[in-house]
């Protein structure tokens, strides 16, 4: 399924004096450019292959195009590729990248190696549109959305790192880095279209998970668009008053509205969701909290990932003790709800969930 918004026609592009990012063009627009230069349309296909399948960052690398054509591309377009500006390696093998964008903004991405697979955790915004109090990224606020190619480039960079350090290609992608993916809906879906396309990276959508804090309207749109990737919800409480304290946007996007959107999602896609859940001391570690989560989980087929809290220098948030976490696990499983305890990786370099904030 394609998710492109309307693009300007090529005449508009060519009339502009500023160089356009060539990866904002469709294949048809590239073909039109070459025809306008007196070349065969298939040259556009070759150029498109260099940009997406081969991830070329420089026109000079496009060696099956003549030198004059490469110069013509250089005159008309730019390739606004990312640059891994700084890299940190954890003792557990995790790598955190400080990714410089073409306008010098920085986002972070993470390579997470686990046994026989490697996962890329990618960012979708510079900063974040939401206000989760336990997340370092939320303190930055949103500065801009990432373009599809900037998301795509993070995946390509981590694939190269996995081959270099782990001797295997990237196997999974999670949109759990900086930003709220559903607040950058079109660009996120366009990036996934390129990642999964045979003309791009040709990865299976089943290996991609988009994690959202819960934007009901956009979850319904995902369902209507019949997306094939997996959906995860950063939940952390199934009690309205508690969730609103730790995730203030929950006053607007209520738990009831979230549940309704997830029922809609399942009716349309028949795909279960994953709930990501941190247990904090004195916040959501009571029997009432467990019962509320169990009730919420009964709405549709789901699984729950209980994840560690990764501190961001906020005294109000402290990881609950092992007994409280065990109570969650035991009671969820007793009610037939799949529950997994996830241990964070990359904590020593602030690369774990909730810690990404451009500290590098």
Which descriptors would you attach to this protein?
TIM Barrel; 360 residues; 34% helix; 18% strand; disordered N terminus; two-stranded parallel ribbon; DNA polymerase, domain 1; alpha/beta
Question: Topology of this protein?
Answer:
Elements: H1 10-15, E1 20-21, H2 27-36, H3 42-52, H4 67-76, E2 77-78, E3 83-89, E4 95-100, E5 106-114, E6 117-121, E7 125-126, E8 144-145, H5 148-166, E9 172-175, H6 185-196, E10 208-212, H7 216-224, E11 230-234, H8 240-246, H9 255-269, E12 273-278, H10 287-297, E13 302-307, H11 322-334, E14 338-342
Helix pairs in contact: 2-3, 5-6, 7-9, 10-11
Question: What this model shows, in words?
Answer:
- The structure is a single chain.
- With 360 residues, this protein is an alpha/beta fold.
- 34% of the residues lie in helices and 18% in strands.
- The strands form three sheets. It has a ten-stranded mixed beta sheet with strand order 3-4-5-6-9-10-11-12-13-14, covered by helices on one side. Strands 1-2 form a two-stranded parallel ribbon. A two-stranded antiparallel ribbon has the order 7-8.
């Amino acid at each position: 399924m394609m998710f492109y918004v309307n693009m300007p026609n090529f005449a508009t592009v060519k009339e502009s004096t500023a160089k356009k990012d060539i990866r904002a063009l469709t294949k048809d627009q590239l073909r039109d450019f070459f025809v306008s230069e007196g070349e065969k349309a298939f040259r556009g296909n070759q150029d498109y292959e260099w940009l997406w399948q081969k991830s070329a960052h420089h026109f000079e690398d496009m060696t099956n195009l003549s030198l004059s054509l490469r110069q013509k591309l250089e005159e008309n377009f730019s390739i606004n590729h990312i640059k891994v500006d700084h890299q940190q390696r954890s003792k557990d093998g995790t790598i955190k990248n400080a990714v410089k964008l073409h306008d010098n903004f920085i986002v972070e991405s993470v390579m997470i190696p686990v046994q026989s697979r490697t996962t890329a955790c990618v960012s979708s915004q510079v900063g974040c549109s939401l206000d989760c109090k336990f997340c370092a990224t939320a303190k930055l606020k949103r500065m801009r959305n990432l373009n599809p190619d900037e998301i795509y480039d993070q995946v390509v960079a981590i694939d190269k790192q996995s081959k270099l350090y782990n001797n295997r290609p990237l196997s999974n992608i999670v949109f759990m880095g900086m930003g709220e993916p559903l607040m950058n809906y079109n660009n996120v879906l366009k990036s996934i279209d390129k990642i999964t396309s045979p003309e791009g990276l040709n990865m299976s959508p089943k290996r991609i998970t988009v994690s959202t804090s819960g934007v009901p309207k956009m979850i319904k749109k995902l369902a209507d668009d019949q997306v094939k990737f997996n959906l995860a919800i950063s939940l952390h409480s199934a009690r309205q008053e508690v969730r609103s304290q730790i995730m203030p946007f929950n006053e607007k996007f209520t738990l009831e509205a979230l549940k309704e959107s997830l029922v809609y999602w399942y009716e349309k896609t028949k795909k279960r969701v994953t709930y990501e859940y941190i247990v904090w001391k004195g916040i959501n570690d009571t029997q009432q909290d467990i019962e509320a989560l169990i009730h919420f989980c009964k709405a549709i087929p789901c699984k729950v990932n209980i994840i560690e809290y990764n501190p961001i220098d906020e005294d109000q948030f402290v990881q609950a003790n092992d007994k409280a976490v065990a109570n969650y696990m035991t009671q969820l499983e007793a009610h037939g709800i799949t529950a997994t305890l996830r241990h964070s990786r990359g904590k020593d370099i602030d690369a774990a969930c909730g810690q990404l904030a451009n500290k590098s």
